[in-house]
Amino acid sequence: MRLSRIVPLVFPALLLAMLAPAAMDAQQQVGNFLVERKTDLITDEDRSVAAVMAQERGQTLMLVWGCFGELAGAGFTIPNASSYDYAREMRMVWRFDRAEPEAVTLARATGAGLAYLLPEEYLHAFSARIRASSRLVVRVLNFSTTPTDYVFDLTGSERALGTLACMRNLRPDGSPAGVLGSAAEMMATPAPPLLTRADTVALIARFTPAEGREQRGEVAVQMRVTADGRVTWDGLQVTRTFDADFNQPASFIGSSLLFAPGRARRVTVFVYFSPAGGHIQVEDPG
User: Fold this and answer.
1) Which CATH entry fits the domain spanning 13-188: 1.10.600.10, 1.20.120.1200, 3.40.50.1820, 2.60.40.1880?
2) Going by DSSP bridges, is the β-strand pair 33-40/22-30 parallel, antiparallel, or unpaired?
3) Which of 62, 127, 145, 249 could disulfide-pair with 207, CB 3.0 to 4.6 Å?
4) Res 14: pLDDT
5) Whole-structure pTM over 0.70, yes or no?
């Protein structure tokens, strides 16, 4: 089964609701959900949000619904994180209560913080499943060298989502077709383990242009990894960059990586440059 790549909402109501200046009218705890009633300071439009949080290994993942006037949005967000430290998409397997696991790939919204949005056509069905379930387990596959499980206790979901006026405008004609994929397929094809991850910061510091040490951004490098885990120069290509001066450093870094032996494959390595050092993310096993 093909795994879908979900394009962010054209109008990211969730992010605008969370980030736009707003006056907080009330805040209440509803079960395990935090509900904040907010109003836009200029337009008086509804900016209310409802959120539930899960923690694992010191990292917090939040599931948030938000209103922008009559529009609704929802997605996963990582509080207090810098967007350049994380992948362009979140590859996950989730499970509602004892239901069958499902695979989902959500794209990172750009220009408004670090959030991965649910597609508009699935928002009604997803919210209905949240209301009918007591627990949601989310296994994030691509944010660290090992998958991380986040357990959301959904106590209070019916009442919490019921406080958001914009949720009443969701149309029930959406479909999960094209959104949900095979959990077994996604978990069976992880990115190849990177053996030299501990040397990442040193590599980035070594190859970063001296005049660009204060810049931050990402360069995507596609490369061919042989069966013995080495990178071949002839298959190395920069596919996206924030600054052309960083293309060659990113290529050198990519060529220096060593992966665990396995089958030959093509991967994309995202090299994140920052004043504090950097980060490497491996995605898209091929």
Assistant:
1) 2.60.40.1880
2) antiparallel
3) 249
4) 46
5) no
